[in-house]
Amino acid sequence: MALTPQGEPEPATGLPGGPPPPEGSRNSRILAPLRTEGARGVAVAVGSTVVFITVLVVVVVNSSGWPQIREAFFDGEIFAEAFPKILVKFWRNVFIFTVAEVFVLIFAMVIAVMRSLSGPVFTPLRVLAAGYTDLFRAVPTILVIALLGFGAPALQIKGVPRSDVFWAIVALVYVVITIPQARFVDWLVARDRRRRQAGAAL
Fold first, then answer.
1. How many domains does the chain have?
2. Does residue 153 lie within any of the structural domains?
3. 164: nearest Cα among 154, 179, 174
4. Is 143 among the domain residues?
5. What CA–CA distance (Å, rounded) separates 63 from 144?
6. Which residues touch 1 (CB under 8 Å, ≥6 apart)?
7. 66 CB neighbour count, 10 Å cutoff
8. CA–CA distance, 14 with 35 (Å, rounded to integer)
9. Calpha distance 184→115 (Å, rounded)
10. Are 145 and 69 in contact (CB under 8 A)?
11. Of 12, 181, 172, 198, which Cα lies nearest the Cα of 95?
12. pTM beyond 0.90
């Protein structure tokens, strides 16, 4: 729990009566008016949202091209026929994400530690970690999946797995790893800053 300079606990950020969330937070832009207006603001927000969605549905359903859109994308018979196959693929996706998440957290922490290392001797590691992060943030996810999912098995290298599930996990790790890595870097930097401040205060 964070403490104020007077030694008292700080109120939780974003809760009623507490300080507002950081300026860059999505909550500060979406939910800030509801905190200031209370229950009345929540009721107005819910009501306006329901009205907006209702009007949108009425306009879409009564449009001239709705029958063609419904036949192409919302056909009940086709949905019922395809749903079992979709469900099987859905659970495969859950498995892929679950396995990939373990490796994402491990490698994200490794890269974060590499980026936060200080000293001239660790410059190659910092450059390598920063280059990897910037590269996979810039490359579209679908391109990474296509390159690894279809390109790697097509090479037919002896000993290299050809399973689509394996390469889906690898591609997902490569792409998603940059997100928690940035959070880990922020945490490591903040931890070091607190240590320096504590040492200076002694």
1. 1
2. yes
3. 154
4. yes
5. 39
6. 9, 10
7. 13
8. 8
9. 10
10. no
11. 172
12. no
Q: Are the CB atoms for 10 and 4 separated by under 8 Å?
A: yes
The answer to whether position 19 is within a domain reads no
Q: Is residue 10 situated within a structural domain?
A: no
Per-residue CA distances from 143 to 16, 97, 137, 139 (Å): 44, 18, 12, 7
Model confidence pLDDT, tens digit, residues 77-134: 888 888 899 999 899 989 988 998 899 888 888 888 887 777 788 888 888 888 877 7
Instruction: Fill in the amino acid letter for 189.
Output: V
- Do the Cβ atoms of 184 and 112 come closer than 8 Å? yes
Residues 6 or more apart whose Cβ sits within 8 Å of residue 24: none
Residue 53 pLDDT: 95
Tell me which residue has tokens 């196959």: 85
Question: How far is it, in rounded angstroms, from Cα 101 to Cα 173?
Answer: 7
Residues with Cβ within 8 Å of 198's Cβ and at least 6 positions away in sequence, in order, are none
Q: Which domain holds residue 110?
A: 76-197
Task: Find, among 59, 5, 31, the residue nearest to 201 by Cα.
Answer: 5
135-139 own/partner pairs: CB under 8 Å, 24+ apart: 136/174, 136/175, 136/177, 136/178, 137/178
Q: Token digits for 35? A: 């905190």
